[in-house]
Amino acid sequence: xxxxxxxxxxxxxxxxxxxxxxxxxxxxxxxxxxxxxxxxxxxxxxxxxxxxxxxxxxxxxxxxxxxxxxxxxxxxxxxxxxxxxxxxxxxxxxxxxxxxxxxxxxxxxxxxxxxxxxxxxxxxxxxxxxxxxxxxxxxxxxxxxxxxxxxxxxxxxxxxxxxxxxxxxxxxxxxxxxxxxx
Length: 182
Fold this sequence. Notes:
Elements (H helix, E strand, L loop, with lengths): L12 H26 L4 H30 L9 H31 L20 H36 L3 H5 L6
Helix pairs in contact: 1-2, 2-3, 3-4
């Protein structure tokens, strides 16, 4: 069994799990978000919205955990330096900010629109804002624009991983993949 914590050479199991779980969840959330926005009103649509919001709450909690974990663990050494190194460091925080923007704007859109936000029906968040259609609509626009931005950042993130693997032939991509046995 691999190491739980990061080292200066590779990411640990916890970082890898958070990375991949969140990656698949976010891609799923983006797909479901675009599908449900085009759905006709129905019980299926409202169920999808409820699950979408609950998953968003889970993702912001995981994002906070991931940020705390990242700040309390060593990070593997960069394989690039100079301007590329600055972009590599910055890209991580741009992705974190994009994810947080998605969740916060979604919450504000629901809250100001007086649509409840619950966490898988375990508890419901109290309203923070007064009913405000304009704020809800603005947050909805931010949510949509942030979704497109996040798609772009994710595309660049994947492209950079493959650039490192195929062109630079370094270990950047391999450090985030599960270890093979044998």
